[in-house]
Specification:
seven-stranded mixed beta sheet, Immunoglobulin-like, mainly beta, six-stranded mixed beta sheet
Amino acid sequence: MSKTKKRLAAGAAGLLVTVAAALSAITISSAAAPTEGSTVPDAAVPVAPFTAGTPFSSGQEINVVIPANSLFVATASVNVVECAAPDGVPPTLPLNCDGNTIQGPTILPNSDGSINLQSEGDGLYTLYALPDSITLGESSSNQVTCGDTAATECVLYIGDNQGDFTQPHVFSQPFYIAPNATDGGTPGGDGSAPATTTAQPTTVSTSLSGGGQSGTSISVPTGTAVTDTATLSGTNAATATGTVTYNVYSDSACTTLASGGGGTAETITTAGTLPPAAPVTLSTAGTYYWGVTYSGDSSNQTSSSTCGTGGEVETVASATTTAQPTRLRTSLIGGRSTNGRDFRWEGRIVAVIARASVTDTARLSGVNAATATGTVTYTVYTQQTVAKSHFRYWHWVVLGTAGTVTVAAGNVPMSNAVTLPEGIYEWRAVYSGDSANKPSSSRFGSETEIVIPPTQCRTGSMTSPASCQIDPRH
């Protein structure tokens, strides 16, 4: 090939490259030019990195892109403002836009009216879930709301005057913004609606309590307050919201509510924790059945406890009019600090060092003991010699009382603390009884207190008075 042909060929190749480059720089768009007040698809553009199919994140920076149009002119700056658009409907009044989110007025359109913040060096636009207290310092009463629900969808106003909707303007496509604790803008999204959560199955487990009993089946006298507690389990149970309703039925089919057994829906105030039922007091003897229903929420399916003979059963019996036998069990407790060591004795027979204090404890049992009232009196006895027919023998006499305590709901408080000199003593507790419980007492001789002289303990560990020696100074 001649040099001339080679030069022509090279020139032709260079021409082709130049033409190709020119063609590659031409952007052909079939999108119609925006018109006054119209919504521009893809005007709010996420900037990498971001996750497609998720909402924007509060604090996330995005690009704003408007194609060529006849609305905007290169000499008139525009503003970008975030506005509320419930269910994707753009606002019709300026008051639906948040002036705290304005960006401008240095944004100037290109000669063809188009806008591209990123390529034109105007920076990026920052989105916020509204109202925003973190960065913008807004209160919850702010009237413009933008978030991640259909009712709080958002748009961007792009126009000459956000306070006058008669001036040239357009809106971006509607989008969602997820709030976060720092307005950090992460994880970034593309403004899509949040993924819907499929409600997961739940189960309810329950337990009755009242009259000193608890479980799925209890028996109580008429007039006894009974309550129910429920626990929810399931994949999403720890975040459960909604309500729980407790009902009491008079039939095993759980179709007829007992008098006073129709519960109201109790609102779950702590996620995942079901509040207990309000106490129910039944005045008519019979068998009753409790049923519990959880309302469910967007993440948890509704569920109910088993109601009927296989569920929670409350048997209510007529209140007993004849006082029932009772039994009083007692135990002594003593203690003292000596030579830097602490001593404690407990049982039906205790040996304590002189000047140690001792108390008596009592526990009442019986058919109706759980509802017992009345009093318990603690008495201390000492030995006294009695002469008769030229003989002397020991006789137990009352030394004094260690207090009289009031019994409430079967609970018996302990006695007063008593400190006694060296010697041997007997304790006894006596229960007064009430209309449903017969009087009773501990057996005399079942509680013995032995008070030994003060001691001088050996060095080292000591677990009982036997490891101490009598102190000759006493």
